[in-house]
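Quick question, first post here. What does this chain look like in 3D?
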Amino acid sequence: MTAGPTPEPETDGRPRESEFPPLLEQMGGVQGVVASTIPVAVFVVTNILAGLQPALIAAIVAGVVLGVWRAVRKQALQPAVSGLFAVGIAAFIAYRTGEARGFYLPGLLFSAVCGLAFLVSVLVRRPLAGVVWHAINGHDQSWRADRRLLRAYTFASVLWTLVFAARVVVQGWLYNADEATWLGIARLAMGYPLVGLALLGTVWAVRRAGREPSPA
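> Answer (accepted):
Ran it through. Tokens below.
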């Protein structure tokens, strides 16, 4: 008699540590994280040395080279394709406006939209960190009934709100002041370093909630 499939153990709906995927792998690994900043760094340096038009060309070329490099190494192309698409939009805006600061406008607007979305989600008690996490992992949204997880995801969503708000305030001020060089430096400094901190804070909060004993 053939045994049937082993049933999965029941859980209380809280995320287990084994459910957390490798975050760096989702972002293309360490190489992918570093590579994604190269087109912006190339634009900043080339704009200082040679002006806007050469900087736009250099940034796009850098994005293409990174895509080819990942393809040759048979690595995931999604991070490179997404990065090249973003660089293309930024370069188009800078070209049309004739201003180097236009290169950073899409990222600035993206941060503003994301920050507002996370803030609103906290106010309506549907923290976006939890909604996104459970959607990615194919779970339902019943976690909202667990006060521990609701607190954890609220903390994480507030953390993400602060990250995006910091970008908007600092980079928005530099944009209005037309400080393109410093704007590029701020874009690099407030990119993956802040995202990494927010990710660590999110994982810490949710794992901590998952280890708390259930209320009697």
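Residues 56 and 108 are 18 Å apart (CA to CA).
The chain is about 70% helix and 0% strand.
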